[in-house]
């Protein structure tokens, strides 16, 4: 830094200048908090959306999920929300299965699991 | 991950796999936050937009992290991450039809990194090189930012820019040569 980096013929030590000029920039502390909050909010929102959706299903809709042609919606939702939200669908199906004592839902959940 | 699923009950694997993925991403994020922020800052020239761009880059990376890991075959993911930031920065200009609002030299990364004496002695030289850097073509400027601000080697830069190793080497060589010529002409 203290010595000029141009030779007598005006040949600049550009690489040395670039090393000094293009120093890494420390991100502000608030940025990491902001990004972590956003990621947490996205995961939470996706989980809540799927949980709400599973709660809203009627028994008839749950039965309809036996048909693979009806698996598009949960698969799309899981694609948007990640593996954890996929697990939520399965858990909700399991919970409803336990409550209603409908053993056929186990196969739906298994089918979904194998495709998620 | 798919291999492990053969031996583990899916109901047990999914939350565990998710937890492992999140842990890996958190580590990845902490390791490369400064890289993405530095890159974004030197691209857009101000802290406000650099923060937005950095956030968007990590959100996109999070969405595709699992797949990127599977397809990386163990190679470092930094070039992939910087490529995301690169694409976002390109869209940033395209969508808003603008160049950096704040010239790099007045964004003052220099003042934040050097003591007062060093600023007095070297500031003019650094301003000149930043001035000339801003006049380079986008690909040459980007390659130099990746090399000097992020410390990426030729192979990493090549992957980030979607070029061959040879073409990247030539790109960097020509960028430095152009800077030398322009500074010598002044």
Portion of residues within helices of chain A: over 70%
Task: State mean pLDDT of chain A (0 to 100 scale).
Answer: 62
Instruction: Give the structural class of chain B.
Output: mainly alpha
Biggest interface between chains: A-B, 39 and 49 residues
- Binned strand content of chain B: under 5%
Mean of residue pLDDT of chain B?
Answer: 82
How many strands in all of chain B?
0
General shape of chain B: elongated
Question: What would you call the structural class of chain A?
Answer: mainly alpha
Total count of helical runs of at least 4 residues of chain A: 6
Describe the fold and architecture.
- The complex is a heterodimer of chains A (116) and B (186).
- Chain A has 6 helices and no strands.
- Chain A has 116 residues and is mainly alpha-helical.
- Chain A is rod-shaped, with a radius of gyration of 27 Å.
- Chain A starts with 13 loop residues before the first helix and ends with a helix.
- In chain B, 34% of the residues are buried.
- Chain B folds into 2 domains: 1-102, RNA polymerase sigma factor, region 2, helix turn helix motif (Rna Polymerase Sigma Factor, Chain: A), CATH 1.10.1740; 114-186, Arc Repressor Mutant, subunit A (Orthogonal Bundle).
- In chain B, 80% of the residues lie in helices and 0% in strands.
- Chain B has helices at residues 10-44, 47-71, 78-96, 104-107, 109-113, 116-134, 138-149, 154-161, 165-185.
- Chain B is elongated, with a radius of gyration of 19 Å.
- Residues 1-13 and 105-115 of chain B have low confidence and may be disordered.
- Chain B is mainly alpha-helical.
- Chains A and B meet through helix 1, helix 2 and helix 5 of A and helix 1, helix 2, helix 5, helix 6 and helix 7 of B.
């Amino acid at each position: 830094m203290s010595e000029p980096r141009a030779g007598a013929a005006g040949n600049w030590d550009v690489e040395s200048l670039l090393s000094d000029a293009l120093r890494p920039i420390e991100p502000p502390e608030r940025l990491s908090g902001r990004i972590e909050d956003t990621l947490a909010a996205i995961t939470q929102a996706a989980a809540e959306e799927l949980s709400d959706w599973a709660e809203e299903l009627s028994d008839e809709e749950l039965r309809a999920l036996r048909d693979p042609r009806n698996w598009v919606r949960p698969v799309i939702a899981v694609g948007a929300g990640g593996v954890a939200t996929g697990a939520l669908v399965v858990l909700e199906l399991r919970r409803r299965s336990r409550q209603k004592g409908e053993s056929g839902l186990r196969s739906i959940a298994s089918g979904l699991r194998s495709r998620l | 991950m798919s291999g492990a699923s053969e031996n583990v009950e899916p109901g047990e694997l999914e939350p565990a796999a998710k937890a492992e993925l999140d842990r890996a991403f958190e580590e990845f994020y902490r390791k490369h936050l400064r890289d993405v922020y530095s890159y974004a800052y030197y691209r857009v020239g101000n802290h406000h937009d650099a923060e937005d761009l950095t956030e968007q880059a990590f959100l996109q990376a999070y969405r595709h992290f699992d797949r990127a890991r599977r397809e990386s075959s163990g190679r470092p993911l930094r070039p992939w991450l910087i490529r995301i930031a690169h694409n976002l920065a390109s869209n940033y200009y395209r969508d808003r039809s603008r160049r950096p609002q704040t010239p790099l030299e007045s964004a003052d990364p220099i003042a934040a990194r050097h003591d007062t004496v060093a600023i007095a002695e070297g500031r003019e030289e650094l301003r000149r090189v930043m001035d000339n850097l801003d006049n380079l073509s986008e690909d040459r400027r980007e390659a130099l930012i990746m090399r000097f601000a992020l410390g990426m080697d030729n192979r990493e830069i090549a992957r980030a820019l979607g070029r061959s190793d040879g073409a990247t080497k030539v790109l960097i060589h020509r960028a430095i040569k152009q800077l030398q010529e322009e500074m010598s002409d002044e």
